[in-house]
Each structure stands twice: as structure tokens, then as C-alpha cells.
Amino acid sequence: MAIAVLAFLLALGRILSAESKFMVYNTSASIHPTKLNVHLVPHTHDDVGWLKTIDQYYVGSNNSIQRACVQNVLDSMVPALLADKNRKFIYVEQAFFQLWWRDQSEATKTIVKQLVHSGQLELINGGMCMHDEAVPHYIDMIDQTTLGHWFIKEEFGVTPRIGWQIDPFGHSAVQAYLLGAEVGFDSFFFGRIDYQDRAKRKNEKSLEVIWRGSKSFGSSAQIFAGAFPENYEPPSGFYFEVNAASPIVQDDISLFDYNVQERVNDFVAAAVAQANITQTNHVMWTMGTDFKYQYAHTWFRQLDKLIHYVNQDGRVNALYSTPSIYTDAKHAANRAWPLKTGDYFPYADRANSYWTGFFTSRPAFKRYVRVMSGYYLAARQLEFFRGRATSGPNTGSLADALAIAQHHDAITGTEKQHVANDYTKRLAIGYSEAEVLVSSSLACLVESASNKECGSPITKFQQCPLMNISYCPPSETALSNGKDLMLVLYNPLGWKREDIVQIPVMTGDISVHDSEGNNVESQLIPITDAYHKLRSYHVKVYLGRNAGEAPKYWLVFSVSVPSLGFSTYSILRAQGTGARPTLSNVSTVQPGKYSGVNIGQGNLKVEFSAAGKMTLYVSRGMKEHVEQSFSFYSGSNGTHNDPQKSGAYVFRPNGSFPIIPEKQTPLTVVRGPIIDELHQRINSWIYQVTRVNKAKEHVEVEFIVGPVPTDDGIGKEVVTQISTGMMTNKTFYTDSCGRDFIERIRDYRTDWELEVNQPAAGNYYPINLGIFMKDSEKEFSVLVDRSVGGSSLSDGQIELMLHRRLLLDDSRGVAEALNETVCVEDDCTGLIIQGKYYFRFDPIGKGARWRRSYGQELYSPLLLAFSEQDGNSRRSSGRTQFSGIDPSYTLPENIVVLTLQELDGGKALLRLAHLYEIGEDKELSVTTEVQLKKLFPSKKIGKAIEMSLSANQERATMESKRLVWQVEDSAEEGETEVARGGPVDPIELIVELAPMEIRTFILEFTEFDTVIYG
Amino acid sequence: MAIAVLAFLLALGRILSAESKFMVYNTSASIHPTKLNVHLVPHTHDDVGWLKTIDQYYVGSNNSIQRACVQNVLDSMVPALLADKNRKFIYVEQAFFQLWWRDQSEATKTIVKQLVHSGQLELINGGMCMHDEAVPHYIDMIDQTTLGHWFIKEEFGVTPRIGWQIDPFGHSAVQAYLLGAEVGFDSFFFGRIDYQDRAKRKNEKSLEVIWRGSKSFGSSAQIFAGAFPENYEPPSGFYFEVNAASPIVQDDISLFDYNVQERVNDFVAAAVAQANITQTNHVMWTMGTDFKYQYAHTWFRQLDKLIHYVNQDGRVNALYSTPSIYTDAKHAANRAWPLKTGDYFPYADRANSYWTGFFTSRPAFKRYVRVMSGYYLAARQLEFFRGRATSGPNTGSLADALAIAQHHDAITGTEKQHVANDYTKRLAIGYSEAEVLVSSSLACLVESASNKECGSPITKFQQCPLMNISYCPPSETALSNGKDLMLVLYNPLGWKREDIVQIPVMTGDISVHDSEGNNVESQLIPITDAYHKLRSYHVKVYLGRNAGEAPKYWLVFSVSVPSLGFSTYSILRAQGTGARPTLSNVSTVQPGKYSGVNIGQGNLKVEFSAAGKMTLYVSRGMKEHVEQSFSFYSGSNGTHNDPQKSGAYVFRPNGSFPIIPEKQTPLTVVRGPIIDELHQRINSWIYQVTRVNKAKEHVEVEFIVGPVPTDDGIGKEVVTQISTGMMTNKTFYTDSCGRDFIERIRDYRTDWELEVNQPAAGNYYPINLGIFMKDSEKEFSVLVDRSVGGSSLSDGQIELMLHRRLLLDDSRGVAEALNETVCVEDDCTGLIIQGKYYFRFDPIGKGARWRRSYGQELYSPLLLAFSEQDGNSRRSSGRTQFSGIDPSYTLPENIVVLTLQELDGGKALLRLAHLYEIGEDKELSVTTEVQLKKLFPSKKIGKAIEMSLSANQERATMESKRLVWQVEDSAEEGETEVARGGPVDPIELIVELAPMEIRTFILEFTEFDTVIYG
């Protein structure tokens, strides 16, 4: 459309829009050099699911639960902005914006693009959702942000400048530096920090800081970060939603109740109050809140008037603004700001209201998200290797489902149950589609077919998403119906992997062979009744059918898989007297006879005490006392002085109660060539398996917890404690979104003198990857399989909260008790969770290697696919082993491929990450090279353009635009030189990665053949 | 604006509007000949004041009381209609529309005019407000409707076709025939009729009828009238206000919760349900309710979808419609409809919920409106006679204030107190302006100055709006500070008038003279303490100042005033021994001695019983026993079975308690040459004066009631009963809006078999002019000074409810108890009311004359203005007597000038009304002539164009367009020939008026001199 026509159209828009007050307000104010500038930032905060599902929020259904319709917001925003070119609006949640965009006509799109280009409409933050910062994994945060940023780039050609995490419940270091500075944001604003911290910062005018979230990157990844004085709503009385109760500006002298002077006075008073706690002559007013601007006109009509009359008054300067304009104004002040390091966890909004319960809330959903996250990473790799099809199944819906699952009311567990169900449904749908893609990609790769030939491969692969409850139809049936079973194991990591595989089988009359036909040692472990029950109940629950006869054994065997590739194994009906799996030796130890029971035949041995508690850990000469136990906190129902209850958000215990293992229950000890296990029924609703793999030097603890009983009317939050004799001096370390470890000190905050009100809840931190502690000699690390809350509440001890079942709502809006159940028809029982954690001792300075490398293996487990084979005509053709990279090459141990994804036009997105922080490991915390050519042996890389983290702009462009900020005092002095990998030589194509560095490339290939012969 | 540009603009509007869903819905359905047609009528019902003031509703302030902003409705309606030319909307309340219109730019006005002309926006009903039908006076109804209709005509060139009284609490005959048929409406729709009536009509499919509201006019003023099946909201579940909870139509197959078929089924089911109680294949859905369409887009988005999918489904035909389209469809059915006569009073929505309390609620406000109404009529006449000034004070703001005071939550008393205060304030402001106009007009006329010369007349007139509490500064001070007093008395009636005047004076040392200097007989009546208290307290309350020394006497004298003119009287300081007023003979009758006390020295005498009750009425040979007493109903606080309370709307007594006059209080008897009075203190809060004027043959009863005590925790509704010995056979007659009398039969309804639940409340009717009953020999009539509720609860008895003070809300939304107080600063006491009623016996067939003629005098009292004069230089020049009409002419006794108002361009609006119904009076219920030439002796009438009642179209045009309707059965047979005045000969200019006829003319004058020498 020609500019002239567009201009005319915009002019007409002003006439035609609902804003037709004949009076013309002067809304043109820009920044005033000396007056107090009040930046009015019209905004809406649209939760990507919370009390309603995302779709319900979008279309405005289910309004009896919450009056919210995002379609209204965006529909009404357009004419409101057209009505006055000075008006501005920001929009944040791309999941909604994209739904809306899809519905718009080309004419509307043209107008909206013009609004974006003129700066009237600014798309900020720009991920699909406003992700939480405590419980998402950083890979998921990157992916969901990238999805949104790409859309914005593609449709509007712009890159968001501002981090706008106004609602999440505390703020992470990873958000500040990685999803902030590293995506090119100039600033980062948020609403929720600890009430004590906030009070001090208001007093010291230090709500606005320069935040260096990364020890490794220091000032090179710092960001201007502003916490709001209260929340993200307007000052009291300036709330102009349709039907809102704030006094409107009545400026029609011919009507009664004219109140212009009164409203101007209110405005000035609120501005001055905020100026008193803010540096510089700029304050920002967040003019909006959750799902507001349903009828944008109502806000702008009043804001127009306020700007007009306040500026006529002249005491302060009011202007339409955006966080970008505000940030530039702060930057232009050219002053030094307080320095902030670490993070803003945990978050308490009142003395007994620590929002540390949500670190664990909905543990099954948190695990599901983690599993899907790893699967999505692997699926994209396989999609890339096979060559992305233009139609048919892809990873798109899994990507979308995972993206919105990162929302701060999704993975947090703070949504209503029906909304949690919606997220789960979306993940399941996304998974189903990705599963088809993965199966067919594996089939294509196995069949060595080219991209084009591989429309419908012959080999049919099946996968087993319910393997965790010992349900795997192909492995159960194949061998029992006269077929053999081919097993493909895909390794998404860049290094060769030795691992063990564990699948349920109906019979031990089988043998396991590698791709060369060699017999592979294997072990049969009887599946216990606890698993049979899990299996039969949950197959009914989730698939709505009977699980059928239960498999008898876990078949366990060791496997070896190449980098970014697969191996195949065959499981055959045993013939003759050939090698069969070793049946485990199972012994039952009666109560009172426990003493000295031990498992572990390799470098690691675990002994148990007479009470059946794990007690001694022996590994490579280290001999440590360790004691593991369960207890629960009873959730507070509120006290006389404070009605705060423990709930989905808030952890407020009113007592801690040890769970003593039942005295009459025997221990079961399972021993075999690969794995030893010790099974314990702790009580009627806790079952635990302690497992030692001969080839590994950590302990794996598998737990089944639930249904948590509440028939005593008491909500319970179930924790496990692992106690050692270490002198840890109140200090422990937890990860930030699965990435950087941050030092935590019990009952202490770096930024203020902590008043301790909640000795447990106030010391809880989110754990995504792991938690560790150390003394002068050693480290003790625990890795987790999902996000959980945890702490070290006494020296030498670590506590993880595994499950929560509560009976009351904690008054933060969700208005439901966190009381998860699963139902077969109408018969519901409390949710049972099953999961694992892993622990290990290391000599001091040596723990990172396990935490980082094994941690990454936990995130990216081997992807298993099964194919039945006719035993009589075993497939001899086809590839039995595959590596996506040069077989002579492997990625360094400290490097991982975060993303390998085919883009349009045969390009690829590649994200490489250094897994180690600076100083974390002597050998591995070093700058390391990756040879791109070796990564893509069958392709020729034409160009490797380094991008910002969200890949929406070239890294160089981003760096050139980055605002430079000064910090107060001598903060600079403490900083050591920051290491960053250098530029990539376009010929050599070697990428250097410094510790913690993540580098993002868009690769352009000049050869497109995607069939690789490994 | 050229048509092409406009079309382009409209097309763009569609693009730019918020409605930009890419999906295109087919909304083009029109009427289907055979299917069930569901007429979707988007509407909003915007109360012109209720819980908030009109201004607060308009701008959307005070939203904590009610979430409502009319500006939003109208702002958002425009783009919503532009977005799809099939969409339609009706707007009703012109008071709001005019506020909005004033704010619009020319561009918007052009668009809105186009929307009106295309029929997308239809302005219906069209008065300033949706007036009530029980308590307003028909003259006020005409005036407020005219104001709105003129505006619509002037701005849009259209005339509303539809009566839309959807919310008023029962429906009047006058509304149906006079404000319906006579303003040219083709139909009339409403929501509230008695629940028993409704049930029967649904069953019989007779909600839609042909209503003949006038006995005099019969079928010539009939109208198609439709009562809604429920209320005026959409069917349950089809309520699409922003944030409403009804399920939206989710038709996006790519989102969850797709529900198109479900919603279509709901729609069809609701349509069929309504069809089952409705004649023809047309049903109307009122898609909206109070203050809805705040964001019109939310409704139209869903309605578009419903029309699209319902018609795709095909079982029924859904269309955007208006009441006009619906009416035409009903008419096109060419069938006979049930006949309805009488009215729809009283209204009960449940068994114990008779909305008959509001007939009396806020009696002081009701009186204030009535006084202002009469004043407005007179002021316009004086404005006409003087010649309307182009600037300076006029009657506009009084017109506006009176117009909105007719709203069904204004004069009804069913608004919140602060809103009642707002109406009162507006009336006071309007009065103040009109008062200046009246004073200066009178001065001009007195000074005989021409229009142009009369910018600032010398004579300063003062008026006494607080005369009712004996406060009249000019009459009080003039004579005491050495000045004489000139009194001008203006008579707005078209016939010469003999009356008495009563003004407070400080001294009896005065004399009264007519304009020829003749001494006029006068009487002094001591002002009693009861009035001194009223005066001093209320002057403080209303004027915020001390009233000063109280006047000692009422000075009473007889006056004679010409038609539409004035007389002047002088009150001089008495000189020498000349004639002074006669001091009344005042005697006190001690308790026990009452027997035989009587007043009245003319044709009428009233005797009192030993108990102090009026007991015998003697007039011209008639001798009737009559007993008058007070009692109160205790307002119900709800019962176990029904929580309904007595409140502003609902009269629900839980008992009736006689008020026995206090035994120790003496009677005071006042006698004089002009007036006799009997003063009684009934109890500490009721004071009564029974008054007989020697020249009149009715009894005037003046009451002071209040503060009604509630310290016993009981709300009270105070009534007076007047009992006679008449055998009235359950039958009595009450007026409809002050115009037609309707027969009422106790415990009986014409239209259905009444189940009697509330023997008092269910027999109450609104009384504006009066109530009467008759037996075979005589009639007993009572006239009132304002709207009150009344009944005849036993034969021969009449009851009027005078005051109500209640302590609980009656749950109809106002959410306040009707507990009126007046305050001096923070010291508040219950509202005291003061007022009068009048009664009289007449021989059978003779009562109408008094009711009609004296009733009109009560509506249009003499307008008094005072001017101080220097006694030493009495003004000798100037006009002392004036008549606006030819001095040789007087209007016939059965004719009144309802409106005489100067219009732009020297035109005038003239409304002449015949005061008598057909058959009401032998001599006066006849077609009567008015000679227009004699009415305007100094002007030449160029044209006299007969108009519709609201003067927005020529009567002939209106008649030519009128839809002809058929009624069922042989209803036609009973009809007698209808009399109507014939056409007006343009030369003779004689207007014939048949009984009850009101004829409206716009007169064009060819001479403009407005100075008349009488």
C-alpha cells in the first residue's frame, strides 16, 4: 500500500474510531528535561492460561470464572491507537497475539504493522508467554522466547528491546543475563520481589539496578533491571478499565461533577510519591493489569485527558510512553546505578507468605514438561537429519505446547485443574505428532532412504511414553507373539554415550544382541507389585483401557550409542541354550535383620542401617555416612494472626512430621550383573527403590509417592532429607533455571538483613538441575528429574520437596486447593507421582563434572523406539548405527547442542552451549572449540551467521545497539576479565565457547542432501 | 460530503473498525416467509438517572455504584454498525443521545446521520427519557416527548415509529393512545405487566394486542401493543456484554471448546419456546438490557455468528431487526389481534409485590415536579407574549429538567437519594432561569415596551417559590420597610378566572387595591406556629440562611384575572382609617366541645363531630355524612414465606393502624369574610387545616405530615381516608396520567380472574388529577395536588397515600431504603410534606365539571409576582391589566391551551386540548370551536399546520402512514362513532375539538409585533 493511501487511512481511522470527542486533547508531550516525567505505559497482562485455558481467554468464554477476553483487547487496541498517534500500547504474550493475528484481514495487518513501525504499538518481552523464572528449564525458556521473537521478526521486522516479566513470582539470574542481556534486551522490568527487599530498596531508591546475573559473564551480560514500587497496576484511583470504579476525569463544564483540578492533584501527588523512591526525574506508571483494555477506548479517553490537564497544570510532565522510551530516558541520565548480583528468590509478599510451594506444585506435570522438553530437542534433531517435510507431522504443536507450558501459571502448578489438564492435553497432542515424526525419521534413517524417497518408510517404530509405569506394548507383546524386537536408541548428545536400558518384558526366554549380532549381557529384574499397580491403574486412567497382562521383568542391558546418532539392538526369542538374561538374585530381608545389607558391586557400595535407612556410601575410597528419610510438612490452614494457608503458590507449614518406615515391612534386595536395587515400602503410600548401576558412581533413588492421605483433614507436603556428616556452614548451591549455580546461605540474603519468619519456607529455592553442598574436602550433589523445591535446612543436609497435596486455597487468585487426583470414570484418588533423584559425593572441586555431564544426560535421555521383526526374516539391509556428525568427531565433554533445527530454505538453527561455569572445573571450565564442519559432514556450510540467543538478529547488530550502563562505587574493580569465544572464521568454521557461553548460529548450507551414511 | 466519499468512508469504516475477524459471516438474512423468524433487536436501556445521576451515567463516573457509561455505548456503537451494514441498533433516551451528539465532530455526525437514514440506527420512543406511565402528568409526557422528537426531526429529519416503554412499572391508557397513536407510533412495546396477566396471555398467545386506550377515540387511536414474554433482556444464555458469562459462539475449529452446534441448538430451542406463546411466525429477541453495549463489538461479534450459523442450520431464520421491522412483519400477517382496553395497572411481579408504593414515593419531589410543570406552561406563554429573546434566560433548562424528571426512576421516587437530589437541583436551576424570564417578561408587559426595547425593564419582579411554607420576602419586607407592594397575577388559562390569593404579611396595617384603585375586601388569618416552624426550618434547609422574623398573617383576598393575562393589585400601607383587612375571628374549641363546630358561610358548610372528625357536608341542599381520618400501614419487613419488603417501589403493608387524634388538643376555628378554616393537630407529626372558601363549593384540606416517626423501627405509609355513606359497589374511577378516567373495581381485573393476595396494595392505583366514586344519586370527587397512590378499599370510602417513610429496601435494585430526610448541616430529620387535596359532592353526572375545570386551575395556579413600589411616587404609567387574547374572547370552559410556545423564525407551537371525555358532561362533552384569530389578536396567522402530538410531522402525513390493524371477534361492533374535529379552514382558522381531543399546530405569523395592548 502506498504511503499516501496509508496516511489517509490512518487519518480516517482517527475520525472513524470510537474516539470522537469533539474536544481535542493535547497528548503530544515528550520528555521534559527538568520536570518530573510520568511515563504512562498502557499495557495489559494476559496470562497464557491460569483460571481459564488459553483458548478460553482468547475468545472470552468461561467468563463466569474470570471476565477476560484477549480478542477484545487486541480488537479494541487498533482503533484506539489510530485515533491519536501519540497513544502507545505494549503487547507481550505472543501466544495470544499470534492467535489474533491469524484472524486479521490483510488490511488490518497493514495497519497494525504501521502501528508497530511508528512505535505506537510495541511488542516487548516477545516470547510466546511470560515464562516463569523459578521452575522452567533454560532450554525451554530459550525455545519459547525464540518462537515468539521469530514471529515478531518475520511479521514486523522488529526485535523486542525490553524484558517484561511483571508477574512471575521471583526473578532468576538466568532470566536477567541469558533471557535478558543475551537476547538483546536493554532492560528488564518486574513486579514481584521480596517485601523486605522491596521496602529497603524503596528507602534506598534502589528498585532500579544494574543486574549482573552471570558470574561467568559479569558486565558483558548485565542489564538495567527495574522492580516496580508496588505491583504492575496503575496507582490507586487511575484504573480506567470499562466499568472500573476509579474516578474518571470529568472535564465537561456543562455537566455536574467537574473534577479536573481534583484529578490533576491526585495525579501529581501519586507522581511525587513515586518520585520520592525513584532515581532520576522519570517514573513509570504501568497503566493496566491482567486482561485489561477489553475496551481500550476507556483507558485512552482518560489518559488523553490526564496528559492534557496535568501538563496544562505544569507541575509534572505526563506523557504516553513505553518501557523502551523509559529505558532510554534512564540511560540518558548517564549516571551510575546500584549493582545487583544473584537473583530475587525466594519471593515473599508478606511475612508468612513465601511463594516457595510452587517450586514443587503439580510434580507430575512438571515432570511431563521436562520429559517433553528433552524429547522436543531430540525430535528436532531427527527432523533435521531426515530432512523436514513440507507437510505431515512436525514438531510445531509440541513446540507451541511446550512454549505455553512455561507460562508462570502453567509449569508453576498455580493454575486451576482444568487449565492444567489443558496444558497436558496440548503436550500430549504435540507429543503424538512429534512421535509420528520421530518414528518415521528413525525409519527413514534406518532405511537409509533419501529425503524424497522417505515419504512412507516400511519400518514401523513404536515408542513407549508410559515406560515409567512399566507399560510398553511393543516390548511386552513382540516377544510373546513370536516376533523379535528391534530397538533403536537415539542419543541427542554430541558425545558417545554408554548407558543402560530398561524395558518391560513378559518372558526371560530371550536374548539381547547388538547391531553386529553379538550377544549383550542383560539382567532380568522382577517387576514388583508396586509397579503392577501403577501400571494397571494408570493405563486405565490415561488410555481408558485395560493394560492387559503385566510384564514380568525389567530387562536391563548396557548400550553404547554414537554422538547425535543411534544404535540398534535386537531382542530375540531365545533359541536353544544360547545366552539368556541373568535373572537377578532377589532376597528378602526381614525387619531386624537389615544391618549390613548393602547394594553395589562396582566402585560404589551403599550400606543400610538396622532401621533400613541408607547409611553408608563407599566409593573410590570415600566412605561417607549418609542417611535418607521422609517427612511431611502439614500445610497451614492459617493461624489466628495470619490467615495465610499453604497452597499452590505459598509454602506455609505448621509443623514437620517424620515418616517412620513401617516396622514389619521386609526389604527386598535385588542383585545382578548390571544393577543392584533395594526396594523399600516406606509406608502404605511411599515406595522407594535405591539403585546402583555397576558402571556408574552415583546412587539413583526412585520413589513412588501417593496418594498422599488427607483423610485426617490435613494437607501434606512430602519431603525427603538426605543427611551427611558434612560441615556446610549454612551454605548450599542451587541452580538458576538449570544453568548457573548460585550460592545460598540459610537464613541470609545478600541484599538485606533478613528477618526470618519462616525458617523452612523462607530457605526454599527452586531446583531444576540439582543442589549441592560442600565442605573442605568434598562435595555432595543431588540431581533431580524435574523442577522441585529444595533447601539445606541444617548443615550437611539436603531436603527436596517431592509432592504436595493441600486442602485449602492460598488466596492468590487460583481459588482452588492444590488437591490433584486421577480418576477412572468417577472414582478418583490422590495423584501418585513417581520419579527419581540421583546423588553422589565427589572430592572438592570435582563435583561439577557429574552435575554437568550426567545432568545433561538426564535432560536428554536415550530416545527408544521399537520395531517388531519377523524372526524368520530378520531385516539384514538398512542402517544399524548412525551418527549425525562426522564419525571421527565428537563434541567436547563440556559442549552440548542445545538446538539443531531445520529452518525454511534449508537453513539450520544451531545453538551450542558450554556446560560449565567459569572456575567450576579445572579442565572443563575452559574455552573450547567446536568444528562446525565436522558437525555437518555431508553438508557444506555456506554461511554461519552468529545470532542473538533468540536468533532474531545478528549478534553483532545486537552488540552494537546494546546500551552501556554504569554501576555505582567500585563494583567494577571486583570484576575479572570476561571470556567470550571469538568471531568465527568463515573458512575454518571453528566456534569457540567460553565457560557458560551459548552461541547461536543460522547456518546456510550449499548442499542439501540430508542422507548421511554413518 | 459527496456520496462517493461517504461510501468510501463507510467501506473503510468496515476495515478499520475493531471487527476485523477475517472470517466473513453472512448476516444478510431478512424475513423468511414460512420459517420462524427470530428478530434480533440490539438495544440498550439507559435510565436517565437511577442509581447514578444522568451525568454520572453519561460519563461513566461513580461506577462503584453501578458500572455504566452511556458514552461508551454510543461511542462503540458507531464503528460496530459501520463494520457490517446488516447490523442494526436502536437508541431510545434522547437526553443521553443529545449529550453525546453535542460531543461529536462533524465527520462523526455525518456518519451517524447516514446510519440513521440507512435504518441501521433507529431512534425510537424518542422522548428525552422513557417516562413513567403512572405518576407523570400527560402534559409533562407530551412536553418531554416533543423535546426529544424535535431534536430527532431537526438533526436527522426522521420521526420515531415505535413506542418502547420497556421498563416502566405498568402501562397507562394515555401512553397507549396519546403518547402512542397520537404521536404517530405504529406499535408500543413493554416489559412489565402483572404476573397473573402475563401468565394468562402467554397461555392464550395474547401478549400482543390492539390496545384502544381511549374511550373517546376508540379505534382511531389504537395501537399494536406487545408485552414481552419475560423482561427486556435476551433469552437466558444469550447475553453478550463485555465480560458477560453467556457462552460465546466458539467457531474456531483450531481452538478447543468449539460449540457451534450446541449454541445453534440453544438458539433454536429458545426461539421455539417463544414461538409457542406468540402469534405469527415472528418473535422478537431484545438483545440487550440496562446500560449494555458498553463495547458494542462484543454483542455484534456473537450476533453475527449466531445469524450465520443458525441460518446455516436452517431450522429457524435469525435476522438483525428493529421493532419497526418486527411491527411491519406483524402487520403484514394481515390478521386480527386480541383487543385490549383500559390499562395495565397496577403492576405486580410476584404475589406480594405490587409496585403501587411508587405512586406516592417521594411526595415532596412529586409535588415539586407538578408545581414546575404548571410554571413551565405559564413561563412559555409569557415568553411568547414578550417575544423570545435570542439570548438571556429562557425556559430551556427548566424544560430539560422537567423532561428528565418524568423518567421512570425520577418522578417515581425509585432513584437513590443523591439522584433525587440531582433532579431537584436541575429543577431548581431551571426554575431560577425561568423565574428571571418570567419576571422580566411581566415587567416588559407591564411597561408595555416592545420586544426590542425590553432588554432591561425597570420594574423588578420577585416571586415566592417558598410561599407554601409562608416564606415570601417581598410580601414580608416591602410593607414593613415603608414601601408599597405591587402584585401581578398571571392566569395561564384561557378563561377569565376568579380566585383568591393568600400571601404572608408582617402587619395588618395595610389595604388592598385593584388596578383601578378600588379597595378590595381582604382577610387576615394568623399564621400558626405549625407554619412558623415549617418556615424557619426549611428556609434554613433550602436557602441556608435564617428566615428572619416570621410574618404574622396570611393576607387573603379575592382576585379576578383575564384569560391568558394578568391583573395587578396593590397592597399599600394603610393610611388613616381607610379599609383594612378583616382580622379573622379565631376561636379555640376545647376537647369535648367539638360537637357542632362548623365552618363555611357560603353554599358549603362542614360540621365536625364530637371527636373532631369532619362529619357533615352541606351544600346546595345536599347533606352528606363524611368522615375523614388518618391511618398508617406498617411497611412489611418481609415474612417467613416471602422476604418482600415494602419499599420505594413495592407497597407491602403488614397491618393498618388508625391514627387517633390526640385527645387533649383543642381545635382552632378561623372565620372571616373570605375563608373559614379549622386547624387540627392530629398528632405530633400531623397537622391539618380544613378550609372552605366562601366563593367555592369544595372543601380544601391542607396537611402537614412528618417527620414520620420510625424510632419504633417500623416504616410507615401514611394514608388518609374519606368515608361517605355511598353505596359504590366496589367501583371507583382514577385518572390515567391526569387525563382519562378509568373505572376500577376492587379485587377485580377486566382481563383475567384476579387472585387476590394483597387486598390493599393490589387495589391501589395512581392518581394524578383525582379519584371519584358514585352511587345512583351523586358523585364524590377528590382532586390532588400531585401524584399519589389511592384506592377505594371499601364502598363509599376513598383512601389517599400521602407519605411514605420506610426503613428497608424492597430489592428492586435501588438498594436504599426510602427514608427521606432534610438536614441543617449534619442534623437531619425525616422529611415533612405539606400539601392539599380537595373534595366535593356533586349530583350524578355533574361531577366532571369541577374535576375538569377546577382540576385545570389546580394544575395552572395563578402565577404571582411582586414588585416593591415607592409609596410616594406610585407608578401611574404602565399596563395594569393584560390579556394575550382578544379581550372580547375567552376560550370555552372545556378547552385549555396546553402549549403556547414561540419557535424559531417567529413561529409558534400551539396545543389546544378539550378537557372532557365523551359522555362525561352533558354540556361540555361536545365538539367545541376555538377561533385562532381571536387567540392572536395582534398577529396575522399565515399558516396553521396541524401536527402530530409531538409536532414532529404534519398530522395528515402521520395519518396517511398509520398502519391499520384488525381486532378479533366482534369487538368492532361495540364501537360508537368517533368524533374528531374537522380540518381547519385556512381562512376562518377555526379549530374544532371533539371530546378529549388535543390538536397541535405550528402557526406561522405574518406579523411579528408581540406587544399587545389589552
UniProtKB/TrEMBL annotation, chains A, B:
| Signal peptide start and end residues | 1-18
**Metal-binding recorded as keyword:** yes
Q: What is this protein called?
A: Alpha-mannosidase
Family per similarity comment: Belongs to the glycosyl hydrolase 38 family.
Which reactions does this protein catalyse?
Answer: Hydrolysis of terminal, non-reducing alpha-D-mannose residues in alpha-D-mannosides
This protein's UniProt keywords: Disulfide bond, Glycoprotein, Glycosidase, Hydrolase, Metal-binding, Signal, Zinc
Entry note: cofactor: Binds 1 zinc ion per subunit.
Q: Which cofactor does it need?
A: Zn(2+)
Q: What is its EC number?
A: 3.2.1.-
Species in which this protein is naturally found: Trapa incisa
**Broadest EC class assigned to this enzyme:** hydrolase
Q: Where is the Glycoside hydrolase family 38 central domain?
A: 353-427
Cited function = Liberates mannose from p-nitrophenyl-alpha-D-mannoside in vitro.
Return one GO MF term: alpha-mannosidase activity
State a single Pfam family of this protein: Glyco_hydro38C2
Top-rank lineage group of the source organism: Eukaryota
